């Protein structure tokens, strides 16, 4: 009779048989932008005392890696605005990436701080990043972000490319906002050697305006692109929910993230850690497990027990729907859970 595998070594498998191998970690809820679909205009951010320390983030990530997580993505808010963030990335790189314990350490950014950090990120073994970019129109960019400068972001993207980082642009597709820019963005991105992923707006948090007015189904967008270009579906997987096609005429790829028009939950391998230590097993559900409390009260054993509870709570899928005057699917803003 073989001994039972200790909790600290068991793979993380939910009740539907899905292995959790991808952890997204929000290192801050703060951001230097206020994107209209992500935040309220007058956001009140958390006091620093409530945010996980770098040591606690390292401990939690270590517990996940020991149990089979192979990919870690740092998010925010905007991750690169957290003070001394490069010290955390240096430690994670040395501890998990250089040793081969994880396959990839990456981040999602709005690009505003990339000019300062891109070269160091590449030196630390980060090979690709996601950059949020919804428009190439300067006035529209300022309107969407409420305070961002397009030139600053484009300079950051150029610095990342010069440092050798592969770049995937994330574009939230919005009716009557930027839908006329989708094909021009595709052409520009592929011409520069960047991938492009289109994302349907998600009903998270109270924001200005009614999301019904801006919701754009990516099914119709794909049909529109296919009228001009030859799209070929490919089996590309990056650990996330996107489904990819190649554009034969440009040689580039487009990803589609469709939480409303095409649910992608059947193969979900992801969980999300907020900057306060709350683990959400689904972006579209409110169930969570307090890993900060588990760690502070029970150490590694308490953390592993909490991860077991999380796997039991992980739902089969989200229930996103956008209807006029309806409340958001969940009350928290996207910036709370991590973009």
From TrEMBL:
Catalytic activity: GTP + AH2 + S-adenosyl-L-methionine = (8S)-3',8-cyclo-7,8-dihydroguanosine 5'-triphosphate + 5'-deoxyadenosine + L-methionine + A + H(+)
Isomerase found in the keyword field: no
Binding site for GTP: 24, 73, 108, 168, 270-272
Keywords from the named record: 4Fe-4S, GTP-binding, Iron, Iron-sulfur, Lyase, Metal-binding, Molybdenum cofactor biosynthesis, Nucleotide-binding, S-adenosyl-L-methionine
Residue positions binding S-adenosyl-L-methionine: 37, 77, 132, 202
InterPro entries: Aldolase_TIM, Elp3/MiaA/NifB-like_rSAM, MoaA, MoaA-like, MoaA_NifB_PqqE_Fe-S-bd_CS, MoaA_twitch, MoCo_biosynth_MoaA/MoaC, rSAM
Residues the entry annotates as binding [4Fe-4S] cluster 2: 265, 268, 282
PANTHER family documented for this protein: MOLYBDENUM COFACTOR BIOSYNTHESIS PROTEIN 1, MOLYBDOPTERIN COFACTOR SYNTHESIS PROTEIN A
Record protein name field: GTP 3',8-cyclase
Species the sequence originates in: Pelagibacterium lacus
Origin organism lineage: Bacteria, Pseudomonadati, Pseudomonadota, Alphaproteobacteria, Hyphomicrobiales
Gene name of the record: moaA
């Amino acid at each position: 009779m073989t001994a039972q595998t200790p909790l600290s070594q068991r793979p993380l498998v939910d009740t539907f048989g899905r292995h959790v191998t991808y952890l997204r970690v929000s290192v801050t809820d703060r951001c230097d932008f206020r994107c209209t679909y992500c935040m309220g205009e007058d956001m009140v951010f958390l006091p620093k005392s409530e945010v996980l320390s770098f040591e606690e983030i390292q401990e939690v990530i270590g517990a996940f890696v020991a149990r089979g997580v192979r990919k870690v993505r740092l998010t925010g808010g905007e991750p690169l605005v957290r003070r001394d963030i490069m010290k955390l990335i240096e430690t994670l790189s040395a501890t998990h990436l250089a040793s081969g314990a994880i396959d990839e350490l990456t981040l999602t950014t709005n690009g505003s701080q990339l000019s300062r950090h891109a070269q160091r990120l590449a030196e630390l073994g980060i090979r690709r990043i996601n950059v949020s970019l919804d428009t190439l129109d300067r006035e529209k960019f300022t309107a969407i972000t409420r305070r961002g400068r397009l030139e600053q972001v484009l300079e950051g993207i150029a610095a990342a490319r010069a440092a050798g980082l592969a770049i995937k642009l994330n574009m939230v597709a919005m009716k009557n906002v930027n839908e006329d820019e989708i094909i021009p963005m595709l052409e520009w991105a592929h011409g520069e050697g960047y991938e492009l992923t289109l994302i349907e707006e998600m009903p998270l948090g109270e924001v200005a305006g009614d999301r019904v007015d801006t919701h754009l189904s990516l099914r119709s967008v794909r049909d529109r692109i296919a009228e001009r270009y030859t799209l070929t579906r490919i089996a590309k997987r990056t650990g996330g929910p996107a489904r990819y096609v190649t554009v034969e005429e440009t040689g580039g790829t487009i990803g589609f993230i469709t939480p409303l028009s095409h649910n992608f939950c059947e193969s979900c391998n992801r969980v999300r850690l907020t900057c306060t230590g709350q683990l959400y097993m689904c972006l579209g559900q409110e169930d969570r497990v307090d890993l900060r409390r588990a760690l502070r009260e029970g150490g590694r054993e308490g953390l592993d027990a909490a991860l077991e509870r999380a796997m039991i709570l992980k739902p089969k899928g989200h229930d996103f729907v956008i209807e006029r005057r309806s409340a958001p699917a969940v009350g928290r803003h996207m910036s709370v859970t991590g973009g």
